[in-house]
Structures
1.
Amino acid sequence: MTEPASSPPDRLEWYQTMVRIRLFEEKVQELFMTGQIQGTTHLCQGQEAVSVGAIAAMRPGDVQTNTYRGHGEALALGMTPETAFAELMGRSAGGSGGVGGSMHLIDFSKGNIGANAIIGAGLPIAVGAAVAFQMQRKPNVALSFFGDGATNIGTFHEAMNMAAVWTAPVVFIITNNLYGEYSPLRTTTPIDDLARRADPFGFPGAIVDGQDIDAVYAATVDAVERARGGGGPTLLEMKTYRYRGHSRSDPAKYRPEGELERWKARDPIDILGQRLIAEGVIGPGDPTEIRNETQAEIDAAAERAAESPYPTLEETIPYVYAD
Amino acid sequence: MTEPASSPPDRLEWYQTMVRIRLFEEKVQELFMTGQIQGTTHLCQGQEAVSVGAIAAMRPGDVQTNTYRGHGEALALGMTPETAFAELMGRSAGGSGGVGGSMHLIDFSKGNIGANAIIGAGLPIAVGAAVAFQMQRKPNVALSFFGDGATNIGTFHEAMNMAAVWTAPVVFIITNNLYGEYSPLRTTTPIDDLARRADPFGFPGAIVDGQDIDAVYAATVDAVERARGGGGPTLLEMKTYRYRGHSRSDPAKYRPEGELERWKARDPIDILGQRLIAEGVIGPGDPTEIRNETQAEIDAAAERAAESPYPTLEETIPYVYAD
Amino acid sequence: MSTPTEATTPTEATDRPAPGDVAVELTYREAINAALHDAMAADDAVLLMGEDVGADGGVFKTNAGLLEAFGPERVRTTPICENGFLGVALGMSLVGLRPIVEIMFADFLPTAGDALVNQLPKYRYMSGGQTAVPVTIRSIGGATGRFGTQHSATGESWFMHLPGLRVVTASSPGSAYSLLRAAVDDDNPTLYFEHKGLYGRKGPVQRGEIAELGKAAVLRDGSDVTIVATLLMVERALAAAEQLASDGIDAAVIDLRWLRPLDLPTVRASVDKTRRLVVAEEQVHAAGWGATLVSQLTIDGVDWASAPRRVSLPDDLPIPYTPPLEDEVLPSADRIAEAARASVRG
Amino acid sequence: MSTPTEATTPTEATDRPAPGDVAVELTYREAINAALHDAMAADDAVLLMGEDVGADGGVFKTNAGLLEAFGPERVRTTPICENGFLGVALGMSLVGLRPIVEIMFADFLPTAGDALVNQLPKYRYMSGGQTAVPVTIRSIGGATGRFGTQHSATGESWFMHLPGLRVVTASSPGSAYSLLRAAVDDDNPTLYFEHKGLYGRKGPVQRGEIAELGKAAVLRDGSDVTIVATLLMVERALAAAEQLASDGIDAAVIDLRWLRPLDLPTVRASVDKTRRLVVAEEQVHAAGWGATLVSQLTIDGVDWASAPRRVSLPDDLPIPYTPPLEDEVLPSADRIAEAARASVRG
Ligand SMILES: Cc1ncc(C[n+]2csc(CCOP(=O)(O)OP(=O)(O)O)c2C)c(N)n1
Ligand SMILES: Cc1ncc(C[n+]2csc(CCOP(=O)(O)OP(=O)(O)O)c2C)c(N)n1
Ligand SMILES: [Mg+2]
Ligand SMILES: [Mg+2]
């Protein structure tokens, strides 16, 4: 969990976290090439402002659920890159002891109560946590991160409806990166602005510039605090873009020419970096320095992670049933 | 299938059909009491204008799906009371040879391609038929009848979304009778006007007075013809009421006092009857006469149905797999 | 339908059976009601949720008095959305609650297929053991109701195939009570199956008793043949055993109760004695618990005196609506007895 | 990933294998692609639908060239909503189309649980035989991919339990082709399982061949022990048989292919000879096809020379992500051979 949202946000820390996520994801790609990570992975370069800005609005005791594309949220919530790499490498030191993998970076101690590989499945889980808080008279809120494609599955509708009917303290966050796997939004979804999908449930939906972390933070604080105050759910549509293909095996050839470049021109890390420079929070050389420092941190984390042993089958038996 | 919607509607026939449905349902109750029908049943007294008015808008080749509360639609589409009774009695002469029962009055030859006992399941089936018509370049439309409670299940959302994205010639008809099983709409649904649930799919939704068959017919003709013309789906919310409890075992004690009486004051059969009298289509004594004639028809149908034998197990084997 | 009796009022709940507890005579429906009352009274974290669970005692009247006793937050009527509200229950269980979810008919379990297959059983595992998932799912299965083919499945065997779950079935008022308490007490996702044909049955119930996890019940010892059954088939197996006794055949009857974990040792002990087995199952044999038992025992080297038998639903027929055929396809006491006789003969 | 080869271009489709047809060498992926091409070319009523089926050959590249050949109506990308689009396919099938639905990972089949359990298998039945339901569902199952516990199920046994369905599994390029053609040709809802670990395998494919419904394939005759397998386990069973041959053990290997209908006669003929059986299954044994086979054969009175054996996934473990453990839990050729040896020893 980050600091309580009531203290003034540390935007330099946001910047560093976004850079950490970016370089983490790039390292993951590299580790795939060298075979140190196997299977598949879903990277989030380009979407860092959504993860970091929204999570900055959480307070201690708040929780969230996310997806297979959840490295950004996991790191923003404070999972160390080493723990995350170890999980991706299938090592004992991983967040799930190596049995979860890339799609399941989970840390209950940090409010990260789920990273789901099934589209839509995280939403009702967040609603359930939120309703539990309400019943326990706890002042907490649950967030749920999911993609634009997930707004077409029934579970989305069901979760939104229950949240509304029970005035649950939950915030639904669509990371609208314009694509499902290979399909542009318009081939699967009859509208462009997904925030509209809150209307049939009678609670607010808002469109947010997902490249601008200050906007993400402000919108999420509004929604989270409204929920905390008993005002019920909000749907936030963060307009953003993933720089890479859907998963490791996808070169993303289906994208129109120039689209990637247009989005990169509004890179969320650059936007905040330039703002921090303009405000005098950092100097013009600091972005490069932060990047270099973070790169060293990431490289070291990956190395340490690789030293962790693989789990034995026995080690993982207690993960199945609680007693 | 009734006559093409382009010929002027025979509203006297509508009246007779509504009376037939009403008396059919009352007879079903009676047959339960005498043990001639077993199990459960879901009656639709009070909702007749929705079934008859909407189905009058269908043309030959059009199809529809409905639900366990589907006797009204089945009879409106032309299933004989005898065939329907035989099915409820589990006899060979039933529409499904007696293996379907009260929740599954189905007749493909009349465009009745499904009566489903699973909430929401009929919607995508109708969308599928509609998309097939589109692909086959047939000028046909599919309708789907379902309840207010069904608008909370994911399949509703999924079907609406696909219908929109594919501009499918389909009309979704909510028979909003204000209750799920025992739960009033407001305990499960955060809004009152379900027509609003079309908005996130970008197609029209309309509220219709479900007690007024002329209104039902007009709204459905609009929607069906728009669909036929390539204009895509419509969501119609028919505001109506079921006079009886949810199912046989439900005395409906959960309803506020006076509610039933208020709705009965706007009985759909009476409304049309009075209109037909005022217009001189029928005389003041005709309603009673039609009722008596229909009662005789219904009683005779039930008697004939009871003469049909039960199916043998062998008879039903070919119902499992097609070859 | 039943009205609440004295047994449906919450009593002093005890966590473990007091040895001196006197059994009360309750119907299966009342036993379930009592278990719900007692589990909710014992622990504020327990709640009941599902479609129409509160009003009028719920659809099967198992929930009489609960809404009045515990209020609408803890007896929570949900919208119709099985996958969604089971996901909600999962989320609740991750932050300290212990939901009991009613899935009205077992046929609606597949509507919640993802929650049941990919979420509840795997949630703890994929987090590396970071959380428990104390969710109980009550679902009502079985034929006899003339409800037709979409409302008559027993459904219990679908879930044997899934590590991470527990699966339990209740065949009598006494076990309905103690097994439901055990399910709610357990920290793992547990599917608890009721049979709609049993609600009116009466029997002794030990209020406060919590059944042992994974333990089958030998209802009748016997030396000639072992009959294993669940749910409605248990009383038919017992009736068959009576018939057999008058033929001079000494049949053991085991109520399997748990499908996951499966109590192989108890069944094994019996078949080691009888060397004959009949599985009486209200389900298709393929991919069911009966096949699992016969297979595992055979693999484990049981020395059958004659081939095991099965009395099952037809291999290739959905449940028919029409009353005579619904009755015909369901294994009867006669058919169970006949299978046992054949096994003793051959 | 593979690029389309000459085999992915539609050819003259023939409904029945021309006797003189020459087999071509294709990968499993290409064989599936060829079957899709040929089935769609043969009948305008056939279409392919599912998530991302068109672009870039689909997620597993099985669909290369289809979008180009048949256009976006017949190679239809759906929104993410498995239950919904399977219901759409059902609706299409009722009015004259023959959809092939791709459910990307077998783990997503439960997301479409209602369509699979209550709709497709029962639709014809509850209408009293008024309609056929010619829907084919392709789904990709199995481990080896390091996809973790929510993307590695084989899933095929869940559906054996359901009258009204057909269930078939493809273990090689040749059978992948002919079985997919058979599935599409059949008028009943058919689940067709592919294994994600097999896409790169090469083998002979008889273009135009339509496999016989419900017929298992004896891949290797043998007199000492019968090994039955599906999907990825088939090649491991064959490898085990090679090992066994060098030990002087003559193992039969049967690719079961169909789980519904289940080809008991073919397996029975083999075990009547060998009196020994090993089921090699990439699944939990409980409530699976292996248990069904062992049980039914034992009930049918096979006179086992030694107890049947099974090589299965662990009884109580979801599939782990970490590569060494994913490899460890999967039945290997060595473990299959060892089980066969044990069965021959006694
Ligand atoms: C129920 C289900 N169906 C299909 C998939 C396969 N799948 C994984 S990611 C994905 C696309 C999701 O798109 P979106 O929700 O926009 O999220 P993004 O990947 O863009 O972050 C699909 C179809 C799945 N994981 N779960
Ligand atoms: C998936 C599913 N869940 C639950 C049920 C049980 N059930 C049958 S009818 C019903 C209420 C439906 O209400 P509504 O959609 O308003 O239709 P109405 O009965 O009022 O016509 C419920 C919950 C079901 N049949 N299917
Ligand atoms: Mg997306
Ligand atoms: Mg209703």
Note: The longest strand of chain D covers residues 98-105.
2.
Amino acid sequence: MDTDLARTWVQAIAAAVDQHKDHLTQLDSAIGDADHGANMHRGFSAAVTALADYEPDTVGAVLVKTGTTLISTVGGASGPLYGGAFRAIGKALDTPSPDPQQVAAALAAGLASIEKLGAAAPGDKTMIDAYAPALAAFKQQADAGADLAAAAVAAADAAEEGMRATTPMQARKGRASYLGARSIGHQDPGATSTALVFRALAETLGSRAESLGER
Amino acid sequence: MDTDLARTWVQAIAAAVDQHKDHLTQLDSAIGDADHGANMHRGFSAAVTALADYEPDTVGAVLVKTGTTLISTVGGASGPLYGGAFRAIGKALDTPSPDPQQVAAALAAGLASIEKLGAAAPGDKTMIDAYAPALAAFKQQADAGADLAAAAVAAADAAEEGMRATTPMQARKGRASYLGARSIGHQDPGATSTALVFRALAETLGSRAESLGER
Amino acid sequence: MKKLINAPEAVLAEALSGIAAAHPGLKVDAENRVIARALGTKPGKVALVSGGGSGHEPLHGGFVGRGMLDAACPGEVFTSPVPGQMLAAAQAVDGGAGVLFIVKNYTGDVLNFQMAAELAAEEGIIVETVLVDDDVAVQDSTWTAGRRGTGATVFVEKIAGALAEQGGSLTEVADMGKRVNAASRSFAVALTACTTPASGKPGFDLPEDEMEVGVGIHGEPGRRREKLRPAKDIVATALDAILADQPMVAGDETIVMVNGLGGTPLIELYVVFNEVAAVLGDKGVAVARSLVGNYVTSLDMAGVSLTVCKADADMLSLWDAPVNTPALRWGI
Amino acid sequence: MKKLINAPEAVLAEALSGIAAAHPGLKVDAENRVIARALGTKPGKVALVSGGGSGHEPLHGGFVGRGMLDAACPGEVFTSPVPGQMLAAAQAVDGGAGVLFIVKNYTGDVLNFQMAAELAAEEGIIVETVLVDDDVAVQDSTWTAGRRGTGATVFVEKIAGALAEQGGSLTEVADMGKRVNAASRSFAVALTACTTPASGKPGFDLPEDEMEVGVGIHGEPGRRREKLRPAKDIVATALDAILADQPMVAGDETIVMVNGLGGTPLIELYVVFNEVAAVLGDKGVAVARSLVGNYVTSLDMAGVSLTVCKADADMLSLWDAPVNTPALRWGI
Ligand SMILES: Nc1ncnc2c1ncn2[C@@H]1O[C@H](COP(=O)(O)OP(=O)(O)O)[C@@H](O)[C@H]1O
Ligand SMILES: Nc1ncnc2c1ncn2[C@@H]1O[C@H](COP(=O)(O)OP(=O)(O)O)[C@@H](O)[C@H]1O
Ligand SMILES: [Mg+2]
Ligand SMILES: [Mg+2]
Ligand SMILES: [Mg+2]
Ligand SMILES: [Mg+2]
């Protein structure tokens, strides 16, 4: 992973969010306040802009800047949560070209930030329910010696599975918790955007791997 | 005509208005403010109550009381217009048992009151477009020597025809005038209630004639 | 029909009882349906009475209080009150200096207030009347019912009310009311129909992408139906109609009201006001004073009315005078 | 979607510009999205800052002014503002006596205000926070997000604002805010869903004869769906929930707010208030002060929230203290 790649990841998230904006809002409309698509879109568009002429030395700096931008533009619950996560990930990647183990540790720092701020646990029907399995899968692959691309694909698959698993859950945190049992049967918007984040990572790393392979 | 008959007429109007309340409101909803049914219902129910233990000497007193009650309970445009008309009719019937010519003159006084207060003319798409032909028909029958019942039937028929003739008119008075050309194609609610008033008169006089004939 | 009520017939009486409970500064005569100031009229002060159908709240009861109305007569929803109500109001608030009836120009209101004025005269109460007819969506002509009275009513009640409070005579107060009305123009659009409790159904069906242009405040359809457009265009249409009828030049001062018809969020009214201020600003016309909110509503109708009064110095200073009513309050 | 706007993305910026144009007593920092008093904070006065998503107008911007807030930070519609905004507000209004953040209990608001408090502390500004969580429709527990903050925000802002104006210290003002919150409970029902500009569609479909019971102010469905019932029954349900959580006895004094959610006509709110006054009256609980109107809205949602504060003498006297804001004004 390098700074270009980090930037490409953020751009890929922005593109995915742009494409799924209405879907995210629709999911948030069912059990929240119908702004998650707009929130994510505002934040990641701003991040792409902020990164456009930002040329730092480390992957981490790119992601810290992304997190800071999210915090200063998103608002809502997702702003501080994603913003804090990207800042934590970035702070843990203070190197020009981290390896899979380092990335796994950084992603773990991101989750820790979300858990600390949001005080939510797996099963509460939040973004954590996509993030935690994604992290576990990534770590497992990295520990097994897989490369970044392979680890990221496993993470994205796990995130999507985690995302789908939020549907039957009853929310205990965030706005959806106000609905009590009526939150059951709806997929969590934040878990859905987290799945987009990990899928974007997998695609970014995958196409880099391909282009490297083609050389 | 006598005081009992006058009271019966008012009761018959009240019954007809009760039955057609929603229809009147619906017509008023299309080109007005959706209250004509409620207005007429409130007014004539109050009139029936007011007449319940009122035992005056003349037909006129019954109708003056009816008009006064309408004025004090209806509001809107129709309150003063119908109220003033019934008061004028009543004032012109200062006799225990008026004949058809006298009734025709009284009905003419009613129309004059409406025209004076409302400053509307035939063709403006108002209650006048039912009232004026009804009066003309009544007068013609009376002049030709018809009895009250026959004159009233002719008046009711003419009122209904006049009511239907308001549909293609463009309103120039009342709320419907605010719609300009969009008032065309809708039957005037006030003309419709006026047709009920005359039909109620015809039925009241008709059943009296029958019961007299049966004696 | 979805309404927070108990029964359509009971709405007015129960709302009056709620108004009485909510506003210690008001006293409500439930039998005669008159809302008046709890403290009554200062002897020698001209008393202002207004009224009209209900469903336009806060108009008129919300404008009863020091510096504005002395009494309001609420009729049934969208139905003019009856003369007896107005007479009871005039009798209750006459301070010996006469009573000004402020009447919106609708056949029903005009006729009922006219009868009330006659009854009051018989009781020895001197009555003058100001007729409000500010809605430029409706053509004025001697052959029609004339223009509707809408938003300008608030301006007339406020400014004439202030003059009465300052000791103006009945003629002076009436003249000021007429001047304010003559200087004011309104125009409204609706995005949805409203539903009266008695009818239970929306007054008209409006497709999702259309609006009614040139509506009144009684749920009737407008002059024409158009495709829904951005706020900027709607404001342009409304101000064009207003300024065509009441031309203004750079340096003129205005009082502007952006009024919600009942179902429009306040945030949208501010978006609309922003456009109004921009258009008038471009012409060099000053928005000297303004109101943005729900003042003359049409039950649950979504939409907005604009009212612009070309105000002279007297009007502005009377506008600024203290007012203490449920819906308008400052300087107290 | 039927809205008087130009574009969903432009609503907030344009509304802020409209607010600036409409209220000379306010100054709007368009870049940082901060609404503050034009005159600034008196040195030595504790400054009150609140904020939250937009779409609840007049909350919060309409409560900025003497005797209430010093600044408000409006976020996007239904989206908490960002820490930078809150920091800019705190910096703009700190009068040297510290800043009180009044925060409605939503994850987003809490987290963003928390970050802002940290940033402010880094800048040497002393910040205290009052968390408002009055909505009894939501179960409180350490395992959940806790109760939502709704109508009581108005009470907290008014009463704490008055104490700040009278020279209360940051601790005193914060404590008073917490006391008011602890004494206040709310409950709301919705008859229709609202539509955010960004989503363009109503948040839920509600049959013509049903209502959502226990809703918040962000367009989310309620705790349960029920058949629409008369106002009397709805008030009974809401007051039962409130009084179960905050028992009151004869002789207690209250401040009551009957608050429209944006699309409900004022006449209906008075019908509701009439029922509330009757129920509390039967229990001997005094409605010492009241508000009836649109104060904490949810865009165009039809519905009502009830807020009851069991008020002590201090609260009542602070309630009566002068306030001069666009949406609440008396004693000035
Ligand atoms: N306490 C929390 N911990 C983790 N994630 C949370 C928490 N609260 C909310 N979320 C996530 O945030 C998402 C909602 O984000 P968004 O709609 O942008 O913010 P808001 O709820 O403030 O409108 C939820 O779907 C959920 O995944
Ligand atoms: N100037 C007028 N002259 C005669 N009839 C009128 C006039 N204005 C209105 N009307 C009649 O009154 C009817 C409406 O009555 P109603 O709905 O009860 O009163 P409002 O128009 O005040 O709501 C109209 O349909 C019309 O027939
Ligand atoms: Mg959301
Ligand atoms: Mg009508
Ligand atoms: Mg009417
Ligand atoms: Mg939100």
Note: The first helix of chain D runs from residue 11 to 22.
